[in-house]
Specification:
InterPro entries: DhaK_L_YcgS, DhaL_dom, DhaL_dom_sf, Dihydroxyacetone_Kinase. This protein has nine helices and two strands. By secondary structure, the protein is mainly α.
């Protein structure tokens, strides 16, 4: 379905929203940097919050140079290239690939309706799967992304607005992130811990929730 297909209620998002979303992401990641580091310290290197914060602060600096009237795809492509070049560890390539695939999915669209927003989220999730080879249940960010995509698809089929769609996606991501706590990790550094990873939330799933919540909140204000 084309990114420019109109949703039943006509609600849509544009490049101004995309830029506002990314700026909001930078703010919430900075606010939760210590929390994300703490989560990562339990099952990883302890620097997930630091790395994500550095990446999104770099993105904000580059957003200031974006031409007026940039499309959502152009904003997302800028995010992708910046995260890939500035974020260390696995987070840079994974989130960078997510934003890059999302940018491709909505390339050329000035506005995003429900179908395009689903395409954006689905492409982001699939990009992470392609890069990291993780599945639901592996105790990774996919445990947040996949329920978010599923909720978005259900919302689109129900004819709900893109704002509601993003809210449902964010809620599902939060539930998915919480559900990583009792899991044994099968990917990444946490996989070396075996059952010692049980009881700890995956930091990538948590940061995914923060990003999607920012998308919903900025959409509600658009």
């Amino acid at each position: 379905m084309s990114p420019n297909v109109t949703s039943p209620n006509g609600t849509s998002l544009n490049g101004t929203w995309a830029e506002a979303w990314i700026r909001e992401c930078a703010g919430v990641i900075a606010e939760h940097r210590a929390e994300l580091n703490t989560l990562d310290r339990a099952i990883g290197d302890g620097d997930h919050g630091e790395n994500m914060d550095r990446g999104f602060q770099a993105v904000v600096l580059k957003l200031d140079a974006l031409p007026s009237g940039s499309t959502p795809g152009e904003v997302l492509k800028l995010v992708a290239t910046t995260l890939i070049s500035t974020v260390g560890g696995a987070s840079g390539p994974l989130f960078g690939t997510a934003f890059l695939k999302a940018a491709i999915a909505v390339s050329g669209a000035d506005t995003l309706h429900a179908a395009a927003t689903v395409a954006l989220l689905t492409a982001a999730r699939d990009g992470i799967v392609l890069r990291g080879k993780a599945q639901v249940g592996d105790k990774t960010m996919i445990d947040a992304w996949t329920p978010a995509v599923d909720a978005a698809i259900d919302s689109q089929h129900a004819g709900e607005s893109v704002v509601t769609l993003l809210e449902r996606a964010a809620d599902a991501a939060a539930t998915g992130a919480l559900a990583t706590e009792p899991l044994v990790a099968h990917k990444g550094r946490a996989s070396y811990l075996g059952e010692r990873a049980i009881g700890h939330r995956d930091p990538g799933a948590e940061s995914t929730t923060l990003l999607l919540r920012a998308a919903a909140e900025t959409a509600a204000r658009a």
